[in-house]
């Protein structure tokens, strides 16, 4: 069985960071995701999808993401239900994200850091690991100096 979801959309509000009674961080936000087709009036319709992330990823998302940012989320679909104050059973569908990446540069008015950082749960990825250039394709078209010993085949 497989339950994987990949979404690309814009945040509809600033992420909300909370902590469980046990001290575990949880952040929720909503993505506006355009459908890949137009309706009869020639307009694109949009789905608004709730996303929740946990632990260190939750804190990172809450600190650096802002309303309007274009992000990619990878995770799994979760459907849960609960009883509201009126005694009615409420069913909720949400994506539990385990990988979140910025897809825009942010800049002024968008909040957050500059050049396209990515946040993956337990990835250990850091900007310093990329070398001196923020753009990994800056030398595109120039020869790459690789010895035969560097190749795995």
Termini distance?
33 Å
How confident overall, as mean pLDDT? 80
What is the total tally of β strands? 7
Order of helices and strands: EEEEHEEE
Shape, principal axes of CA atoms: extended
* Corresponding CATH architecture: Beta Barrel
The percent range for helix content is: under 10%
What does this structure look like?
One of its GO terms (molecular function) is single-stranded DNA binding. Plays an important role in DNA replication, recombination and repair. Binds to ssDNA and to an array of partner proteins to recruit them to their sites of action during DNA metabolism. This protein has 153 residues and is mainly beta. It has a single domain (5-125), classed as OB fold (Dihydrolipoamide Acetyltransferase, E2P) (Beta Barrel), CATH 2.40.50. Helices cover 7% and strands 44% of the residues. The chain is built from one helix and seven strands. The chain has one helix spanning 55-64; strands at residues 5-11, 16-19, 25-38, 44-54, 70-83, 89-102, 118-120. It has a five-stranded mixed beta barrel with strand order 1-3-4-6-5. The radius of gyration is 19 Å and the shape is extended. Residues 107-132 have low confidence and may be disordered.
Give a quick precis of the structure.
The chain has one helix at residues 55-64; strands spanning 5-11, 16-19, 25-38, 44-54, 70-83, 89-102, 118-120.
Attribute tags:
153 residues, mainly beta, OB fold (Dihydrolipoamide Acetyltransferase, E2P), 5-stranded mixed barrel, 1 helix, 7 strands, 7% helix, 44% strand, extended, DNA repair, DNA recombination, DNA replication, Primosome_PriB/ssb, Single-stranded DNA-binding protein
């Amino acid at each position: 069985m497989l339950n994987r979801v990949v979404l690309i959309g814009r945040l509809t509000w600033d992420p909300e960071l909370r902590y469980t009674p046990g001290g575990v961080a949880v952040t929720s936000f909503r993505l506006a995701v355009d459908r890949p087709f137009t309706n009869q009036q020639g307009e694109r319709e949009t789905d608004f999808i709730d996303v929740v992330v946990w632990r260190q990823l939750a804190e990172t998302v809450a600190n650096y993401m802002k309303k309007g940012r274009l992000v990619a989320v990878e995770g799994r679909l979760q459907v849960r239900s609960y009883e509201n104050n009126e005694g009615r059973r409420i069913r909720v569908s949400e994506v539990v994200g385990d990988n979140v990446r910025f897809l825009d540069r942010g800049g002024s008015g968008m909040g957050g850091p500059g050049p396209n950082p990515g946040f993956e749960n337990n990835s250990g990825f850091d900007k310093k690991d990329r070398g001196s250039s923020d753009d990994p394709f800056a030398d595109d078209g120039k020869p790459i100096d690789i010895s035969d010993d560097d190749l795995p085949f």
